[in-house]
């Protein structure tokens, strides 16, 4: 009777439809159950090994002799036909639209690693004829090339490669100056070589020794100057063109070098630095009175030490900067360490390494650490004062990242093919300045990112 009732109540076609509806609801519920519980289950992802080494604490330093900076007169430019770098395999320079901003307040640009860069340098000594001969390592016959294929990578942020086209567009009608010793000249050559990939600059000024220069990029009205002022304060230097001294430097610790102060307000961007020259034998003056000296045993003067003069000079320089009316951006660059091993520049020291090192693998020399400690302490004091006065004063601490590149110096290849006539020839090594192209090119990556995101 019930079946008859159902047959009457639900004819065959309707009953079939009802069963289909029940099955549809069942399968939908089953699918929902599977998806829901799968989303709650733990996800398994591959474990990626970090490409960066763990930080190693540097051992306590031992006292060592620090080399004097070499001075070589600048010869006319030389060009060698060296092939361009291989096709870009990694880290293609981004366009302005692609370039993602880096939070410069959170990024520690100076804590990182040198990582492989198969694309190689942006320029070569074939594409840039502005490299000084004693830093043109390829022209001078350096046989290895691995030192060209590394780039600096901060651990906490992405550092884009320097984009010369974007830089030139951002710097229309601006004036830059790099002020300091021959490392500043080294640095400015790197910057000019990178920018010359977009436009060749015109050299519009140079002094008699080619230590001070100014270039102009005509399409952008950008001027780029290098001002040679190794002490930043006024100094009488008694050296020949080979850097051989006939007397101690006479250093006036209460007078800034007018070579840069007279032009100071003309520049929108400044990178200022000093360092190694303060290790030279010197007599210190203040108010036209001798205060004492450093390393002058033949004179009956009080030995004050280079650290006395360095701190006093930096205080004076930084006070001038932070109390000025400068409305642009000023960088203070820390000194860069040398890598002489098995002696010093005057006693057969060499730098024959061909790859970067890891933190702690090579100890920073004691006197170098003293220089850096003074720099960081004095900048720290000046920075707070600059902030109060509205002066944009920033630190670029290249000391640590440069310490990891003992492979980046000319070594014996500061001279043209030094072993061409004698494979065992004894030649002086340059383990202070940097090959171009070379590690110094990465400095510009950091500088540009700080400018863009500052």
Automatic annotation (TrEMBL):
InterPro entries cross-referenced by the UniProt entry: TBL, TBL_C, TBL_N
Q: Which UniProt keywords apply?
A: Membrane, Signal-anchor, Transmembrane, Transmembrane helix
Any one Gene Ontology cellular component term annotated for this protein: Golgi apparatus
Q: Where is this region: Disordered?
A: 56-75
Question: Pfam family example for this protein?
Answer: PMR5N
Give the subcellular location: Membrane
All copies of the Trichome birefringence-like N-terminal domain together span: 105-158
**How does this protein lie in the membrane?**
Single-pass membrane protein
GO terms assigned for molecular function = O-acetyltransferase activity
Q: Where are the transmembrane segments?
A: 21-40
Similarity field? Belongs to the PC-esterase family. TBL subfamily.
> What is the protein name stated in its UniProt record?
Protein trichome birefringence-like 23
Which organism is this entry from?
Glycine soja (Wild soybean)
